[in-house]
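User: Predict structure, ligand calcium ion.
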Amino acid sequence: MKRFVLLLMMAAFLLTQNLNARTGADYTPGATAFSVETNEDAQQVKLRIYKDGLGGKPVKTINMKRAQAGGTLWQTTVKGDLKGKFYTFDVKYNGKFYGECPGVWATAVGVNGKRGAIVDMSGTNPQGWQTDRRPVIPAKDLILYEMHHRDFSIDESSGIEHKGKFLALTEPRAIEHLKALGVNAVHILPSFDYASVDETRLDEPQYNWGYDPVNYNVPEGGYSTDPYKPEVRINEFKQMVQALHKAGIKVILDVVYNHTWNIDGSNFQRTRPDYYYRKNADGSYSNGSGCGNETASEREGMRQFMIESVKYWVEEYHIDGFRFDLMGVHDVETMNAIRAAVPNDIFIYGEGWSAGSCAYSGELAMKANINKMPGIAAFSDEMRDALRGPWDSNSKAAFLGGVKGNEESIKFGIVGAIQHPGVDYSQVNYSKAPYALEPTQMIAYVSCHDDMCLVDRLKASVKGITVDELIRLDLMAQTVVLTSQGVPFLLSGEEMLRDKKGVHNSYESPDSINHLDWDNLECYPQVMEYYKGLIAMRKAHPAFHMGSADMVRRNLDFLPTQNCLVAYHINGRNVPGEQWGDIYVAFNAHKRARTIEIPEGTYTVVCRNIKCDQAGLTVVKGGKVTIPAQSAIILHN
Ligand code: CA
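Assistant: Predicted complex:
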């Protein structure tokens, strides 16, 4: 009996080992072990070894063997030191080879990710990497900064040497800017190997956001100084993480497991045809991503792939968090399994929607299901669109444009999408019920890489807007974001009053549309000053990021709502660590000054008329308090 149990345990152990296997190339100086997962009906797998990452004939071709009869894992070990060589797998089904590819688990590749590379990963670490640690910042204290490598540094005005590269974020000019602004987490747009930038032509300007994944577990070559040398991109990515960590800034990776660049040429399809993708009843591929395909996270192999991939980025690259593109394409169970597989301090959030209907009848990781995914956050389009206007129109205005009826949606965002007695959910624009269990499950934002940036949106939606109005409304919008109990999120360059010349889907627009103009820091110094002051105030005052739904319900209450005016009070006395007593915050989107009524007393004004300084700007008496046109006010006693 005992022996039977032992056998069972061994079988279970072997099964787990198989499921968790990160296939690909496992290098030692004496030999390299190769493995690849296929469907059951694979007939043959060829491994080819090459001298280069592109071109040339194989120096060796080997027929791989099944690890077990009838199994799906194929293996072979090649003796000798293969460091610096490249490899491909080629799998045969129904008498036909599906084409060479690096497999789904390459951790290093040659140029354009066509071949896997044999690399000694321990040799890719920058000096001091062993002592690199993820900064300790609880979710409630995070201030996210979403950036694209090229947008950030490509313009001459950036003064950055490694323009458009991972290394840009190691330079003092970049680090000092981020520190001055006060953000503590950089969310980098897709930085894994993607398809749309040709890495053999990096001397020509090419641009893409990068939502077209090829190799999920390798940094993108276009952001490295040499995409032909596989270890360079790995080392430079780590240098970037290390430099940001030294500055106390977390690094969050934008991950796009919901679809691949293409179906037929993808590493998924070439090794396990149709296994990783969802299909409709008629046999066609489902397209919940809007990009031509959608992956099947509910399948064991896809789920394990996502879990292992996320764990790999945490272990190998010390990544601090993940932003899941179209998280609503994935199933709830997979997202919860990912949450459970990584340390608690890894911050996870995503888009709680899909871009089309998904061929899955179970529960999807949509915004409305966030309450079934503790520790995972979703972007709030409720507050975003209540501020700037709806996503399906570039020119429709909302609160910022003086359109009434958006007040409850803004209140929804202020409390962090939790249940709160002061919010009338029947009046909230998309969600008619709270979705978050805790306020840290809501991302508060008014703009991101998608759609227009804030300046363009204001210009497109507010008729005859003046520069003065533009700045007032911009700063008020970010004041709503940065005083929200959710986790605030800023699009890079908003602090420089960036514009994209009115282009909303700039995913492949040239640098001239997407680049940040750093000269704007001198043209509009009041904008950066305000953002800095506001972020510093948030960080210093726990009242603005209580981090617990119970505390928000107990200590935050709304003043009577007026058309285009939202105001609230926080009882700072009940918030641990808070120095301020009664805190009043109000947003007035009218073109005229308005008033609110607060109890008599003496209050210090810390934010008014496009100035924000937590040390205090002036003092006012209670009773009727005036809020200047198109701006925010914050005061306390
Ligand atoms: Ca690439």
